[in-house]
Amino acid sequence: MLQVKIYKYFFLFIACAAFLAQTACKKDTAGASPQIAQIRAISPAPDDSVLTAALPGQVVVIQGANLGGAYDVVFNGFHATLNTALFADNNLVVAVPQIAWDSIPEGKLDVLEVSTPAGTATYTFHITAPAPSITSLSNEMATAGTTLTINGNNFYAISKVIFPGGIEVSDPTVSGITKITLTVPSGITEGGPIQVVGTYGTGTSILLFNDITTGVLCNFDNVNNFSWGCPVSSDAGAYPGGVGSFAQMQFTGVSGNDWSWWNWGRSVNSNSGTWIPSDHLSDPLSSYALKFEIYVKAPWSTGSFYIVKDYNWAYAALYTPWKTKADYTTDGWQTVTIPLDQFKTNNGTGDPASSLSALVGSGSGNIDIMFINDTDTPVDNFDAAVDNVRFVKIK
Q: Is there a single domain that holds both residue 242 and residue 320?
């Protein structure tokens, strides 16, 4: 019996020794703990300087010791994509991941972590959040009390929107990081850019809100180059939310493939006005756009706006919103933006002009916005209003 107990304890001792040996072996295999000394730019000298901050997407070099076995690199709680072919014992080449700035885990802001089998090294490193940017407004001429949508990017922790004249809206509704919705406040009497203010900076629009003069060719009120084509009305109840007078494009019974745009109600034709100031004709073609506000009441499902200069069809722009949204209508007035590089040959389907001067000549002329039913489907009823025709910088 004693012999059995001796054998039992002997085998238990052997098992414990084997476990301890295996653990020690694992520690030896893991090696020394990782260390981070500094972060450098990957660009060639003299730009390969030590970094104190980086942008999401920027490729950096993490320098230190015992880094070669890294299996996880984390910035602000977000995991970077790893390419171990770019790893060495003292250098890790990695791109800073995209950061969801409103979802950074507690305690992880400005923290870099590199994990190897031997442990995790941490290092204080600042990731610079991109400032908010504004790309478009649903209606650049929106009036007080109406709903306005601001489109853009990096709308993180937005605290307020500032309208021209310093009129502020606090705590607007933010959807994701690309959309802000708010009610336009009263008291806006000036035109100009708007600003979106957040924790990570302020974005200022290139576009101008409530600006009824800059680049305006025809607003049917104080800048009125309208010539003929459709009725001009100031009935605020017909298309609510507008400002002053507008062109009313309203007609019925247009058969398929009817190009008779000159029939009453189907076009907006102006007298000559400035498209592009003569001292800006060397600017890039894509840096300017035609803009106007539109209110579409009846569902639009066929036919197109053809837009040309001086009745000249060398270049035409097409506006066909129903192709992306069936039976197109608008929720009130909406801003339409057509970059000037969308004026193309072959009835708007070919190539853009080579330059601004090739498109607009000396910079002035009339504009012709014409409804043409270029499909086989008849138009039973078309009902829309157009206002504030203008040419403005967008870049």
A: yes
